Amino acid sequence: MTRNDSDPTDGEAACFEAGIKFGALYHQFAGTPVSPDSAPSLETAIEESIENQPFCESVTVDILTEKLAAEMDHEYTELTGRFMEVEIVVDREGCEVVTRMEMEDGYPLMKVESVR
Amino acid sequence: MTRNDSDPTDGEAACFEAGIKFGALYHQFAGTPVSPDSAPSLETAIEESIENQPFCESVTVDILTEKLAAEMDHEYTELTGRFMEVEIVVDREGCEVVTRMEMEDGYPLMKVESVR
Amino acid sequence: MTRNDSDPTDGEAACFEAGIKFGALYHQFAGTPVSPDSAPSLETAIEESIENQPFCESVTVDILTEKLAAEMDHEYTELTGRFMEVEIVVDREGCEVVTRMEMEDGYPLMKVESVR
Amino acid sequence: MTRNDSDPTDGEAACFEAGIKFGALYHQFAGTPVSPDSAPSLETAIEESIENQPFCESVTVDILTEKLAAEMDHEYTELTGRFMEVEIVVDREGCEVVTRMEMEDGYPLMKVESVR
């Protein structure tokens, strides 16, 4: 096949894959009932679940249990972006993309840190 | 308050709570990427997550890894009712309800086993 | 089959079904991006989707768009219990159960209103 | 700030955004109860919901109702990638990315069609 100018580069295709993992992670698990006690098992399950997806090298999830404990009115709350920091590394055809989600201006911002 | 004839009994209120847990469990976690390797961490996370909810005594999730391995085309698949058996026990105001989900006629059937 | 004392009554079985619909509705759609403009189509989709489930007579969803508009920091937010009121009517073997979710003490409370 | 060689290009950042929308769409709505009758309202709700997200120009969802009707055992089934085709267009800082999901080899493949 001839390559068209509008075809994605390797970097663009790898960043698309990284985005898919982030959207999947967030919308699969947002809303899950979580407490400081149950946070560790949820972190592990999210990591191992998303690592199943194609091109996914590693997923690291940190549920912010102190913030969780401070903000929950009852004995648990629902997981949302405010309560977690996530790093996802994708490797597709030799192109490695490091991506991260953390709070910025009160909003869980997902961004690409590096493409190599 | 006077009790109306149409008010729920303790057994009815407890069964409503048990149903909520089942619907929550199923629709929160259906669609999660899962493989035989990642099934154990997902089982634990589902159990501990739903046990956070009010009146929930215990949740037992068994992901059917042999069936999973036999049916997945790629290295993982999406969790659905076909791949799990679940028991949820609710205790509300002294009324204990045991409920279960398992396949029946090719359909993941949720049912009340006992109300005591 | 002989009926055991611990078998569910018709009312208990109907309340279990109503609970399933509530848990399903909440955990399927919590986290959905929503704005005042997109709220009407989401209300309709939630209603028609859950009405597909067995024994489900009617589902009425009211997304609180004024509250949504007041609380969102950006142009949209994620749907959660704070932003909706829901009524679900189940009819199973002639037993009709009316259930409702609305905010109570800052928490989206689901309850059985009547069993007939 | 100095630009590092490993910083994402505009095309890479736009493809990351497109991926997020795809992962979000899939994992928010997979598992939703759907029938041929309720498919149109669900299509509209998915489109309007994801179009709320940043940089999202347009979302087009086609639920394959004939396939749905042919494969469902009961009066409804759960939405999954097998039953829908999706196009998402993202525009970020003047870079337009067209992405698509459709079945390929029995698997719902998401891909970048063009970056301009």
UniProtKB/TrEMBL annotation, chains A, B, C, D:
Pathway: Cofactor biosynthesis; tetrahydrofolate biosynthesis; 2-amino-4-hydroxy-6-hydroxymethyl-7,8-dihydropteridine diphosphate from 7,8-dihydroneopterin triphosphate: step 3/4. Belongs to the archaeal dihydroneopterin aldolase family. Pfam families: DHNA (PF04038). One of its GO terms (molecular function) is dihydroneopterin aldolase activity. Catalyzes the conversion of 7,8-dihydroneopterin (H2Neo) to 6-hydroxymethyl-7,8-dihydropterin (6-HMD). Substrate binds at residues 17, 110. It is an enzyme of class 4 (lyase). It catalyses: 7,8-dihydroneopterin = 6-hydroxymethyl-7,8-dihydropterin + glycolaldehyde. Homotetramer. The lineage of its organism: Archaea, Methanobacteriati, Methanobacteriota, Stenosarchaea group, Halobacteria. The keyword rRNA-binding does not apply. The keyword Lyase applies. One of its GO terms (biological process) is tetrahydrofolate biosynthetic process. This is Dihydroneopterin aldolase. It comes from the Archaea. Keywords: Folate biosynthesis, Lyase. Residues 9-113 form the Dihydroneopterin aldolase MtpD C-terminal domain. Its EC number is 4.1.2.25.
